[in-house]
């Protein structure tokens, strides 16, 4: 029985060694997988940092161009303004209307009657389109009916 006991013990030790070996191998495999994931995450982070740095550099370049364009635009506006002011100073003022038209306008203004100077009378006066007496659509009907009643 001793050989059978040794043989049973050997089989038990072999089976337990197999399970222990597979357990350590799985842990080692998981550990290596986690290390690979960590390295991949670090690479992704480094790539992201590089992308952000490139984006910021590009943005800085574009802002610089925009500032240059704005400076050029400002200079252009100032130059144009100076040019217009110089032209205005060098040329005499030209009237809006011709000489004949201006004379006719002044003559027509002189021929107009003066407006009332008393502001109270202007405010208390009836409107220009006010009609004294009877007016409207039914004014004739009323007058005719009154004439018929009296006769």
TrEMBL record:
Localization: Cell inner membrane
Region entry Disordered, spans: 88-151
Superkingdom of the source species: Bacteria
Coiled coil: 24-58
Segments traversing the membrane: 6-24
Bilayer topology annotation: Single-pass membrane protein
One of the GO BP terms on file: regulation of cell shape
GO cellular component, one term: plasma membrane
Residue ranges, compositional bias (Basic and acidic residues): 139-151
Keywords: Cell cycle, Cell division, Cell inner membrane, Cell membrane, Cell shape, Coiled coil, Membrane, Transmembrane, Transmembrane helix
Family: Belongs to the ZapG family.
Name of the protein: Z-ring associated protein G
Organism: Pseudoalteromonas luteoviolacea
Taxonomic lineage of the native organism: Bacteria, Pseudomonadati, Pseudomonadota, Gammaproteobacteria, Alteromonadales
């Amino acid at each position: 029985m001793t050989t059978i006991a040794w043989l049973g013990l050997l089989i038990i030790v072999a089976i337990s060694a197999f399970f222990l070996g597979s357990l350590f191998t799985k842990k080692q495999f998981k550990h290596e997988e986690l290390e690979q994931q960590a390295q991949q995450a670090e690479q992704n982070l480094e790539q992201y940092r590089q992308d952000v740095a490139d984006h910021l550099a590009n943005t800085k370049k574009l802002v610089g161009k925009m500032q240059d364009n704005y400076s050029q635009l400002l200079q252009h506006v100032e130059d144009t303004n100076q040019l217009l002011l110089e032209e205005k100073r060098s040329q005499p003022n030209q009237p809006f209307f011709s000489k004949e038209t201006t004379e006719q306008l002044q003559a027509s203004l002189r021929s107009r009657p003066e407006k009332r100077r008393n502001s109270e009378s202007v405010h208390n006066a009836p409107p220009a389109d006010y009609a004294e007496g009877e007016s409207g659509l039914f004014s004739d009907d009323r007058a005719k009916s009154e004439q018929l009643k009296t006769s």
